[in-house]
Amino acid sequence: MSVSLFKAISQLRNEKEFNNFIRDLCTPNEIQALKERWEVVQALYEGKLSYREIEEQVGSSLATITRIARFLKDEPYQGYHLVLERLHKKN
């Protein structure tokens, strides 16, 4: 990933700024894809639905759901977990 993109994102100070930046940066289809992936992340994290149920509810493919599940379980980055834990602490 581009370091300059990370630096640009780190300059955003609130949700409105982030929303405006993402709307400029991404196409509507890209934004929809990101929204769907985040819905899958949350559903997998909660652990209440099967992959098929998530596919039906969210509309993501089984391949995408499986990939996200792998990142939640096996990959070393743990970015999803970091954000999910911070969001759950706020609530």
Give the termini separation.
31 Å
CATH class: Mainly Alpha
How many structurally independent domains? 1
The pLDDT mean sits at 94
Cα-based radius of gyration, to the nearest Å: 14 Å
Shape: globular
Q: How many DSSP H or I helices? A: 6
User: Largest sheet, if any?
Assistant: none
Helix/sheet category: mainly alpha
CATH superfamily: TrpR-like
CATH topology: Trp Operon Repressor, Chain A
Beta percentage is under 5%
Unreliable sequence segments: none
Structural write-up:
The chain is an all-alpha fold and 91 residues long. The protein has one domain (27-90): Trp Operon Repressor, Chain A. Helices cover 77% and strands 0% of the residues. The chain has helices at residues 3-10, 15-25, 28-46, 51-58, 62-73, 79-90. The longest helix has 19 residues, at 28-46. The chain is globular. The mean pLDDT is 94.
